[in-house]
Each structure stands twice: as structure tokens, then as C-alpha cells.
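INFO  loader      accepted 1 record
INFO  loader      residues=104
INFO  predictor   begin
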Amino acid sequence: IMPVPRFVKIVDETHEISRRRGNGKLRREIWVDASGKVVRFNLAFINREIHRGDNGRVLGYDSQHGVWHRHHLGEVSPVEATSFDEIEARFEAEVGTYSRGRRQ
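INFO  predictor   done
INFO  writer      dumping C-alpha cells
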């Protein structure tokens, strides 16, 4: 009998960003519980031309170790949010500032 996984990874994507659009990669990993609620996530914008530390992660949000936090140019800070959707919207908005050439 196979044990039932506690969490199921429903998204595991890497998208290349063209040089014309700012270069780099977007990485998304999302896990859910049996009810479909997001219980773990990793969102990352990677571009070694902007930041060489943290494996090239310029910006990221994740829930590693059960704590929601934000990575930005090597700095890590806790995140206050009410839902994963809110985190994902923040991430997408911040990545958009990079693709338009404006760093925060």
C-alpha cells in the first residue's frame, strides 16, 4: 500500500525571460493539501546579471520552514499577507517593475 502524500505539488514551472523583456527566469512551485489549499510555495525571479548572490535570485517569496518571507537582492524579510493569492500578486507586480527596467 502506497502512503498518501501530505502535500501535492500542482505547479512546477520555469519560464525563460527574453533579453528584450529583461532577461532571466521565473520559477514557480506550489503545493496544496487534500482540500486544495496552498500550503507551500516558492516564487522566484532569477537574473545573475542583476544579482549574483542567493543563486541569482533577485526577488522571491517562499514558505520554507513554515514562515512566509521575501528575498530581495540577498536580504530576507518576513511577509505579512492574508493569502497566497496576495503573495502571488505582489510577486508579479514587483517582477513587472524589473521587466520595465525600474528596480525597487
